[in-house]
Specification:
By secondary structure, the protein is mostly helical. The protein is built from 11 helices and no strands.
Amino acid sequence: MSVETLRRPGLPGADPDLRMGLELLATQRRAQLIQTAKIGVVWGALVAFLTTVLLQLRIEPSYIGEHYGFVLEGVLTTIGVSLVSIMFATLLALFGALGRLSRNSMAQGISGFYVSIIRGTPLLIQIYIIYLGLPQIGQQVRALGFPELGRWLTLDALQSGILALSLNYGAYMTEIFRAGIQSISHGQRESAEALGMSRWQMMRRIILPQAIRVIIPDIGNQFIAMQKDSALVSVMGIWEITYRANRFARKDSKFMEMFLLAAGLYWILTIVSSWIQSRLERRMAQAYER
């Protein structure tokens, strides 16, 4: 292609194919914006309809306006618990997946048992066992002459909530990591072995960098789900969104008002997290675009 064909569209000598491609992209963007605007109108109409119905049922928006600040303060706690938990869950999932894919029978047995028992029991039961059951074991351990170990088994509410969420989501994400690692073609593994790479070098330099791109969307989905499941830690008295909403709901018998407020905050967190996830996916996909 000559230098003249690289001029801006509209100038003499411009490439007609380039101009046609740019016009097509602009048309697609306009169509996408119009579709997004239409969807926004539908959402607005649905929200207005639901608001009208709730007002007819004597829901008091003024009560929500007076107490939303107290519930809003729990957003940071919810986000903090979810972020710390998803980080620990990701590490557990990585080691769990490597154990599931290992040729070592002990590694396979431990990882398989962990995934089976965590996925086979409710998250709420796991929270109770960690928060209420471990201190009971800690007392017995102290009586046997191991006070330091007994102290480590006695966790406060925040530590128990993070541990329970990490263990629970780590088990589910183990299968996500395993599938992501196995999605990389076997030919690349053979090439790495031919180059004399060890199993760890192959995993760190070739397999994991490609698998992460496959895994990221599922990690984002798990984080969104964790933000909502973090409401279960309210049973331990952690002052997150649900706990704060429940306090005022029981105090003034305004259950619908306060739990609608809590639901709205979780919804907003989900929308923001989904937007961040989509941006991260697009950025990671740029490395694979030509």
